Every structure is written in C-alpha cells, then in structure tokens.
Amino acid sequence: MAQRLVRTLCPDCKQTAAVDKPGWRELTHPFKAPVPDCCNVPVGCLKCRNTGYRGRAGLYEIMLLSHGLSEKVDAGCDIDAIRRQAIVEGMRTLRISGAHKVAAGMTTIEEIMRVTPAGGRFN
Length: 123
Ligand SMILES: [Zn+2]
Description:
Layout: E1 2-9, E2 15-17, H1 21-28, E3 39-41, E4 53-61, H2 67-74, H3 79-88, H4 94-103, H5 109-115
Antiparallel strand pairs: 1-4, 2-3
Helix pairs in contact: 2-3
The structure holds zinc ion.
C-alpha cells in the first residue's frame, strides 16, 4: 500500500473554477476519467495565512494480492509487471485517488501532481 498526504483547500476562501482539461488528462493518464464540470482553486485568506490550503488528506493506493498477482510475485520481483497486473485488476493509483478528491472539490490538480509519481512509473 502506498500513501501520500495532500494539502486540502481552505474551506473559507476556495473558489469554484473551470477544470484545467490538459492538467486533468495528465493527472488521470493512462486512464480515461471523465472531466468534472468544475473544481475548486486556492485563493487565500487570513485563516489559511494566504496559502489557500488548510488541512491535509491522505491518498491511498491499495494492492490486493490476487491470484494473478501472487503468481507474479512467485516468479520473481519484476515490480513493473506486478504493478501493471494490479492496475489491470482495478487497482486505484495514487493519482486516481487524488483525481477523485479534485472532482470532489477538496484539493487541486497541481497539489496531486506535486506529491504523486506519474501514472505509468513505479516509485
Ligand atoms: Zn483561506
């Protein structure tokens, strides 16, 4: 299981904005996630000391050890193959976990990109 903490938007000053579509595509690549109608962006106020962010939330990537995965583990330690198999079997990557939080207006694309590795890579 992998975990990252992202900063969440300040509830007092965040504003609704149009979604940055190229950013969303990069965030959700190689998956085809529908672009949300809108998202929230940081503004800044006294309560968040003008950062636009207040509080943190966890992103999780959980890999269940399925039959297909355990075969790969037995065969050696090709970590990329294990990860690909896990994604095939529906593992939600950290970025997809983050994309759900962006769609829910809790945080931003930039913040998820800052703390998570690119979709295809393992680190
Ligand atoms: Zn604020």
